Amino acid sequence: MGRKLLWASLALAPVTFLLRWVFHADDTTLFIAAAAALVPLAWLIGEATEHAGEHTGPGIGGFLNASFGNAPELIIALFAVNASLPEVVRGSLAGSVVSNILLVLGAALIFGGGDARHGEPLDRFSLLLQLGLVTVAVLLFLVPSVPGWTGDAERHSLAVLSIPVSLALLFLYLGVTMWSLRRHKRLFEESGEEAASGGWSLPVSLATLGAATVVTALISETLVHSLDSFAHSAGISEFFIAAVIVAIVGNAAEHGGAIVIAHRGKLPLATEIAVSSSAQVALLVTPVVALLSWVVTPALPLNFRPIELAAMGGAAVLVAITLSDGLGRRWEGFFLVAVYVAVAAGFWVAGDR
After folding, report:
1. pTM as predicted
2. Over the stretch 269-289, which tens digit does the pLDDT of each residue have?
3. CA distance 36 to 70
4. Cα separation of 301 and 90, whole Å?
């Protein structure tokens, strides 16, 4: 019954488009409709990722979910760049990194982790590698960020300084990812696991992922379009909107996918989704947005505030310590979610630059 309801609720996406483009509904109605439409889309992306993961193993499956799930993040960021909202872009990117490794990972551990004594085994090496990449990204962000803490934060020289940083992040991510994917493929082949009978084929899974991602991106843009006006009327800072609300909305696919997959007893895949997505935002989405901003204009400096850098770097180090034994426990999930709530409260207090 639950699955039938989820399949039927996919109709909320075209309903949202009709409300916006045909009936010109108000922002509050659009916000509610778009938020509701993202739930079944997130479930569908999680479902397709799980079936793809049966053919590729959890490592590559997590990478696929991160890649398709972060597409809306990239599209939303470019819309915000073109609308001259640099603080919204940087806030949503930093918030996405933090929410993935604290909130998404925490939720996955809550729904799929073991008890205090017997944790569920995870791919310790892969997770720590991804978290290490996030830490390196934060250190590189210091190059354009520190000069931007004084003077005009959006000056052209900082955007120019962001170019070599972006290129370094891209080369690092592509090199490590290619090596990591080959490692995951070898481990999966050595494990002798086979896809479950009756599951979706790999082409069907990938096609579903692609279609769901496109619709998710469009719905996410509608949500952000309506959310900005709605949140400002409530007196919420643009930074909090971007770093918490937009980041969570942009990661709806990862949230839904990780929870569904962890609940079905596939915690290694769920944790790969969360951590891989965080690393991909920091080392792929962020530099791509910075480089493409020279095309869509205005050019975006990767000038993060101290609170954003501290949140990203601190979250990566904390999660690495938490998962250092290679086991996932339910109480650790509650701990990470509690830390995320504290970080979100800090974003609220920080307000706009």
Report:
1. 0.85
2. 889 888 988 999 999 999 999
3. 19
4. 9
